[in-house]
């Protein structure tokens, strides 16, 4: 690039050409600690893009930049303090913890959020020392700060954050849905003792909170078995949190992670939840039924005869995922091929049944004669498709993390 001075390289971070910005960042990373003071000063620039690039460079310089960054948490510019806190969260160094503990008392809301977010990223390394300051910050006047603080307490770990349990339970009654959702996630990280508290929170008036609580229960896995009846009820909750996701998806996801034997009681409700034309919304129920496995097969076979075609198609897919271990699966799928009880039982559905059937037959231990005698009507093209289906990846995972909180979208004050 031919430019060796740090200010000139920083100026090139705002260049419209991506290659110029990339090379300037690489040279600044190579210069290392000597470039840190000038980079920190650049955090007060009015350009949001430049400040993002500067924080990225500081994060890559890493631990060598940490002492100067810690000192800069006392800078007069609130934009610099916020940028420094954000960068310390990227470095994830325990040496910054004492300074970050003090930052939640900063007069600027963005700085307080940035410090809590950094402590969340540092997580277990933040240790018990951060807990008292974070508990106090749970009562901050800003709901964004309270969201970030609750998330940080959840990441510090069960032993360190045990003292925060009463404050986090109280946060489930916070006026802000975002705070209540963050508190639910934090409580799930504190262990099975909070299951009854989270079950009660599944009745929250906000669908966003109910969604977060259901996923939080899923984070506990089999330890949340007592929540199965409440999650079964939540499977009928079709409240939307956005254009795609509904509360019942989070409930199905939680039942998958709880797994059998506790989740077996949810099989009928999970099958009913398959009645959705949007495949993405069916995915969590499909995965939960697959996780339950052979115990779900009798109800799934019954659903091939009695449920709407959208359900039957998904049921066939689930049976193919479970496999041919149960003897009644293949005959039930063969019978399904002749089902034309309604107009929605289209060629697409019939083709799906044939492909799933091909997967089951080909992966079973049946003799060639027995396979031939089944008369499945599976063509060579179906068989080729079956091979692809058999090895395909499972449907996409739903979003397991909580809904994006306002604090995660908020730039520093001067960049709004």
How would you describe what is shown here?
With 416 residues, the chain is mostly helical. Helices cover 61% and strands 0% of the residues. Helix 15 (228-234) packs antiparallel against helix 16 (247-258) and helix 21 (329-336) runs antiparallel to helix 22 (347-363). The radius of gyration is 27 Å and the shape is elongated. The two termini are 33 Å apart.
Classify the beta-strand content into a percent band: under 5%
| End-to-end separation | 33 Å
Q: Give the overall silhouette.
A: elongated
What does the largest sheet look like?
none
Summarize, please.
By secondary structure, this protein is an all-alpha fold. 61% of the residues lie in helices and 0% in strands.
Q: Top keywords for this entry?
A:
61% helix; 25 helices; 416 residues; disordered C terminus; mainly alpha
